[in-house]
Amino acid sequence: AEDELRLINRLIDERLVDIQYQPIIDLNARSIFGYEAFARPNDGYFRTPIELIAAAERSGSVGRLGRHLRRLALRDCSNSSLFLNLEPSELAEAPLSQPDEPSLTATKPVYLEIGRAFPETLQRECWHTLSGLREKGVRLAIDNIGAGSAGLRAMLDLEPEIVKLHRKMVVGCA
Question: Against a cut of 0.90, is the pTM above it?
Answer without folding.
Answer: no
